[in-house]
Amino acid sequence: MTVSNTVDQYTVLSGDRSKIKDLLCNRLTECGWRDEVRLLCRTILLEKGTGNSFTVEQLITEVTPKARTLVPDAVKKELLMKIRTILTENESEIEDAEEP
Amino acid sequence: MPTTPSAQGSGNQNTATSQQIVNNFRELIKDPKSLDEAVNYMYQTLLDDAVAGIFIETHHLRKTGNLSALDGVAEDSTYRICEMPNLDIFGISTAKKPMDCTCPNCDRLVAAARFAPHLEKCMGMGRISSRIASRRLATKEGSSAALLHSGGNAGGTDDEDDVDWSSDKRKKKSSQSSRNNGSKKNNGKTF
Fold first, then answer.
1. Which chain B residue's Cα is nearest to A29?
2. Structure ipTM over 0.85, yes or no
């Protein structure tokens, strides 16, 4: 069992995944990251011209690294903290449930 | 029914595996290093998901042709709204223009709104023209000049009245105030 597998399975199971995802989406929309990435996509599409040869996969490989760096540090820190608290929260809940 | 036992079996298996997942997760969380790893992994995955969402949105817009529609047609620069100080939205100065016209008869500056009545009087048209009246009076009753001046609006006062036809209200006011000051001064001297 790898870390990624375990985390994926557990977060999906407990429903934390959608919770964290909602939070992330809200924060990113609030700080304007969404619009920035959208603009980036558009400019790249315009650069590549009108040819239909450009696929979504190509776009993803090109823009994903840039999109990651575009996230403001404050938002990134906050999200990491939130994810950590949510994950550890569950652990304590499990312990609480098992104790009695 | 052959399906029920298998369904029950799979259900049992599910509960077993979910318990297993929880246990695995708990083991993982206990180690702070792997917790960090897990947190970072979660963040990266969800961020990538968000990015992918935007990509697909953009791709969909492009394929349906809405992307170019969102860009719209480039605006003509002549119709662009101007945002300079002291200019209106068309880029024209908001300062008041002098709307004076030069009277072709007497070469005096007259406000545009008053030009027509001025011209009428100046050229001696119409019944109430003071110039015509004064001319008539002057030719017919040249001896009764004193009466004319006492009449007020006729004769020599005509030109002085024409100064008021120009648009400069400041001049008017200043002249009035100077008159007032003068009268006050005079009053002061007399008292």
1. B50
2. no
